[in-house]
Write a structure and sequence with these properties.
The protein has about 475 residues and is α/β, with parallel strands linked by helices. It is built from 12 helices and 23 strands. The protein has helices at about 20-30, 45-50, 50-70, 90-115, 190-200, 220-235, 325-335, 365-370, 390-395, 420-435, 440, 455-460, and strands spanning about 10-15, 35-40, 120-125, 125-130, 135, 140, 145-150, 150-155, 165-170, 180-185, 205-210, 235-240, 245-250, 255-260, 265, 270, 275, 310, 350-355, 360-365, 375-385, 400-405, 410-420. The longest helix has 25 residues, at about 90-115.
């Protein structure tokens, strides 16, 4: 699509999640007339039912685990009678009220920002009548640019239908009236692992059903091993190579049937078996937008679809299901559509985080890339247990790992497994983004003592030897 005059262009965005609202802010900034169509609330699932509330729930569970660490550090809590308190108790309804309130507040803040910059927000479900016309209920909105950012929803199987009470998706957990006594989590990917550990930390008995050999099968194998060991050490029952066949409601809970004939009982079941893109029934196929067999919108690296003037961003594209990637796709789409300077999406520098305890943060190439000889790189892993700051904080699990290109010593990837790894990965991401070599990282000052000191030490150990 050729460049258009931004100040006279009309941009219509279907979906108010990260891909949609970030695109709207960019478009409004350059003077476009912007309309955002959102059905469930500004912020979308990421803010209202997924990222924001789930991470808030996880943070509460992490806070409770601090009580256990405090005892190891010599700090003991006593009640008014002077008796030592050994366990913290989670009031789940109160926790959930705070989580939902926080999510709504974030949604309200984003909506207020959109209105401040002149974005029109329309409540309803939008569909394409043509590549330049969007219908919302009885209203038709003309557009020079359309951005589809409709997201995805939890995958539901015919043999495991959620009822919102005992059999739940991750979007339904915030209405629970009490903490599940025994929660069976089906699926050991990112969502399943995060929420399994969250409820374990809150006080539930948790069984994690994994169809693969280990939890987090798509992640760094060293990191996944640490997390699975932590899960088991804290009392979680992990069932590997155990594929779910069906989930049924019983008189007092749920029954999870496995394909090998075993049965797992619990009071509740949480289904984390993937998601499906929200792309059907909104006119995409009718106007010629190409969809993959999975239902995802096919896009290029500047977010263009197969139809001129129609772009797509976020989970509905299946590029990478991260809020940060959705936001970048949305910003790139608008910049490209309105003729601004733009660089294509580069997935090689995306940092990602799994909010288990400890967290797993990654950027750049992976261990699998090295093992399968797709990248010729040196690998250095340092356990955090040797770090002085980690000792002070009572951290016993975790590590830092750097990947350096052979010859040049350029940092091409990294993994951090630690509390707040989401913060610690940033200097590694800077190194990967700007092609810094290990000597440049190693010669940069770090605070002593600090967890980031282990990143510099790993870089020093990767110094190329002539």
């Amino acid at each position: 699509m050729g460049a258009v005059n931004a100040r006279s262009s009309r941009v219509v965005i279907l979906g108010g999640g990260p891909g949609g609202y970030e695109a709207a802010l960019v478009a409004a900034h350059v003077g476009a007339e912007v309309t955002v169509v959102e059905r469930t609330g500004i912020g979308g699932a990421a803010v209202l039912t997924d990222c924001v509330p789930s991470k808030a729930l996880i943070s509460t569970a992490d806070y409770m685990s601090d009580f256990e660490t405090a005892a190891d550090l010599g700090v003991h809590l006593e009640d008014q009678e002077g008796d030592e308190v050994s366990d913290a108790i989670a009031d789940l309804p109160e926790v959930n009220r705070r989580v939902v309130r926080l999510a709504r507040a974030q949604s309200d803040d984003i909506r207020a920002r959109l209105l401040e910059v002149g974005v029109r927000v329309v409540e309803g479900t939008g569909s394409l009548v043509s590549p330049s016309t969007v219908r919302v209920d009885d209203e038709q909105i003309d557009a020079d640019v359309v951005l589809v950012a409709t997201g995805a929803s939890p995958r539901v199987m015919d043999t495991a239908v959620p009822d919102g009470e005992r059999i739940l998706t991750w979007q339904q957990i915030y209405d629970l009236p009490e903490l599940p006594q025994r929660l069976v989590v089906v699926g050991s990917g990112v969502t399943g692992a995060e929420l399994a550990q969250a409820y374990l930390g809150l006080g539930s008995e948790v069984v994690l059903v994994s169809s693969r050999d280990r939890v987090l099968p798509g992640e760094d194998p060293d990191a996944a091993s640490v997390i699975e060991e932590v899960f088991r050490k804290r009392g979680m029952e992990v069932l590997g190579r155990s594929r779910m066949a069906a989930v049924e409601r019983t008189d007092d809970g749920v029954l999870v049937r496995l394909e090998d004939g075993r049965e797992v009982t619990g009071t509740h079941a949480l289904l984390a078996v993937g998601s499906v893109p929200s792309t059907r029934g909104i006119g995409l196929e009718e106007v010629g937008v190409e969809l993959a067999p999975s239902g995802h919108v096919v896009v290029d690296r500047v977010s263009r679809t197969s139809v001129r003037g129609v772009y797509a961003a976020g989970d509905c594209t299946g590029v990478l299901p991260l809020a940060s990637v959705a936001a970048m796709q949305g910003r790139i789409a608008i910049a490209h559509a309105l003729g601004d300077a733009v660089a294509p999406l580069n997935l090689g520098v995306v940092s990602a985080n799994i909010f288990t305890d400890p967290e797993i943060a990654t950027v750049g190439i992976s261990q699998k890339d090295v093992d399968e000889e797709r990248v010729d790189a040196e690998v250095l892993m340092l356990p955090l247990s040797r770090n002085p700051r980690a000792k002070m904080l009572g951290i016993t699990d975790g590590f830092v790992k750097l990947f350096a290109q052979k010859g040049s010593g350029a940092v091409v990837g990294g993994v951090v497994v630690a509390p707040r790894a989401s913060e610690l990965i940033f200097p590694v991401t800077l190194a990967v983004q700007h092609r810094l070599n290990v000597d440049q990282v190693a010669s940069t000052f770090t605070v002593y003592p600090s967890l980031s000191g282990s990143l510099a030490e790993a870089a020093r150990r990767l110094h190329p030897i002539a």
